[in-house]
Amino acid sequence: VLVSEKKALENKMYKSAFKTEVKKFEAAVEAGDAETAKKLYTEVIKATDKAAAKGIIHKNTAARKKSRFTLMLKKLAT
Question: What is the pTM of this model?
Fold first, then answer.
């Protein structure tokens, strides 16, 4: 029981960190700030990969999200 509680807290921590990175990136894209979005893009991709590696999100979900983040960034650049 103690181990499962500890793991649940760890999972919650990783998921929260992932969601925070996503929100920061999406906010930069919404604001139209290309420079900040480029900087945050690498961080959000890294957070997505970490979440997938830890089992927080499925690997296909991670791939889909990364693809959408890339499209958002490219759309902003044009």
Answer: 0.87
Q: Residue 40: which residues within 8 A CB-CB, separation 6 or more? A: 21, 24, 25, 28
Mean pLDDT by 10 residues, the chain (78 residues): 94 95 96 94 96 96 97 92
End-to-end CA distance of the chain: 52
Cα dist from 68 to 9, 11, 12, 41, 48, whole Å: 28, 24, 23, 11, 12
For residues 54 and 14, the answer to whether their CB atoms sit within 8 Å is yes
